[in-house]
Amino acid sequence: MKKVLVIGGSGFIGRHLVHELAVQGFMVYVMVHRNPVPSANEINPIRGGISAVDRKLIDRLGPDVVFHVARPAFPLLRKPGRILSARYAEYLNRRLLHEIESSQRKPDVVFASGSLMYGPTPMPVYEDQPLHPYSFARQYYRGELPLLDALHQSRVNVKIIRFPWLLGKGSWFEWFYMEPVRKYGTIPLYGAGNNKMEIIDISDAMKLTVRIADEDFQYEICNLVTSGAITQLEFASTLQTVLTLPVVDYREFFKRKPEKEAIQAFTSSIELATRHQDLFSGFQYTPLEATLRQITG
Fold first, then answer.
1. N or C: which end of the chain has fewer CB within 10 A?
2. Cα distance between residue 157 and residue 165, in whole Å
3. In the chain, what is the greatest distance between 2 CA atoms, to the nearest angstrom?
């Protein structure tokens, strides 16, 4: 892998992925839709989002891998917006795969998915676990269908990485933890807090993503595992150590109740396991407390 194309490079995952790819010396082409992406020696912004990616562009750039971390959004509409997003994503993803399959280059496609596609389970889930989309994933599953179909029907080599909770500035942590901290001086606890969560520093996740994508062996799906699952209460307690604020039931201070899907996500137990453990061998994960101190400082 020498040259890569990133779709969704200005989003939360995309910004960190582009940075990591550039640090590791890859030539990075980034599709720029709305938000700008700074150019550098290794970073080359290209105007247009996923719909601007066609066979001519692929053959002209000659990427070895296309990283797809984009997701159409209608944020003001909440659940109806996610349904519209999923339908639009299905169309765009089918078109993208067709363009890649029709190109001469036929690069690999690495697609970013999430652990909510498995749904809550009492046992760790491996890559061959049947999907039971839960919470937000119920709507986004439709957008992922073309990639799942391509695993068995397309001449495009597709790899799906299922991410755990990605922790960093601008992530879910900002909305569901830092906003209550700033407004009410409390750390929220969602439900009983005994559900298990897989949480990883976004920078660690991107290092592992590049490692996974750069492997030559053939596989279809890879769960990006962490250093170990913790309970939501353990997460809140670690944040309490950093901020020295009380942990309080979210219902005591939220004036507007969070969406049902958000509560489902924060109270579900999903513990990831992998059949590709060698990909994670020797990796040094950033301690949770260190990440929290960095993003709250």
1. C
2. 26
3. 59
Q: What predicted TM-score, i.e. pTM, was given to this entire model?
A: 0.93
DSSP string, 228-286: --EEHHHHHHHHHHHH---EEEGGGT-SSPPPHHHHHHHH----B--S-GGGGTT--PP
CA distance 204 to 162: 14
Host H or E run for residue 27: strand 27-32
Is 163:224 a contact under the CB 8 Å cutoff? yes
pLDDT in tens, 59-116: 999 999 999 999 766 555 567 777 888 888 999 999 999 999 999 989 999 999 999 9
Q: Are 114 and 163 in contact (CB under 8 A)?
A: yes
User: What residues form DSSP beta bridges with 44?
Assistant: 29
Which residues have CB under 8 Å from 144's CB, separation 6+?
Answer: 89, 93, 111, 113, 117, 160
